[in-house]
Fold peptidylprolyl isomerase.
Amino acid sequence: MMWRLAGCIFCVFLSWPLGSGPSGAAAGAPEEAPEEQVRIEVLFKPEECGRRSRKGDLINAHYDGYLAEDGSKFYCSRHDKEGHPQWFVLGVGQVIKGLDIGMMDMCAGEKRKLTVPSTLAFGTTGKGPVPPNATVVFEVEVFSVSRGPRSMEAFQQMDLDKDRSLDKAEVKEYLKLEYEKGGKPREEPFYEKLLTDIFWKSDQDGDGLISAKEYNIYERDEL
Ligand SMILES: *[C@@H]1O[C@H](CO)[C@@H](O)[C@H](O)[C@H]1NC(C)=O
Ligand SMILES: [Ca+2]
Ligand SMILES: [Ca+2]
């Protein structure tokens, strides 16, 4: 499951309130002051601590969110989406900044308590039950850490003619396979819309191809 957009098959997209929407602090937050950091407390670390999470990794985790002020719970992934742990890509803004930061270097089985200042959470506007400027606390439990969706393996798999760039036909072929594997084949207009969206986001120079560089926007250290 490689494209973020295709991720809806297994709910990669974190719905509200974890996603950093336009009103989230991630967008246009000023430089963090030194005290505006995520406080990380490791609650449990398994003896066998395998792969540590890094930017671009695909993470599967549960998290509960509390308001620091009164300890009230405002979010619980165990009760959302039928209680399935959530999937997301770490470090790329799919979740609030505080989680992107505080969930680095975790292994499967590890539990942490993260205290996140509002600037790295829901900002000066807040969101839903989270009031403006609220410090929030997340209790997170990681179930799996794996290579991110934009791995070069995935790129090579998609690049059928091996010219180190992806055209629409190649991406479409891949998406179709992924959706069929997921048991949810779609109609043509669905793929067209998805492709338009993917290219709009990834084809930065607008030449109709996604180059390896454009594709691998956040995993440079793995190239
Ligand atoms: C939140 O913080 C901002 C920036 O410090 C401030 O301007 C604003 O008045 C605060 N809002 C509330 C509701 O406290
Ligand atoms: Ca190609
Ligand atoms: Ca391009």
Q: What stands out?
A: Residues 203, 205, 207, 209-211, 214 surround calcium ion (ligand 3) (CB under 6 Å). The chain is about 20% helix and 20% strand.
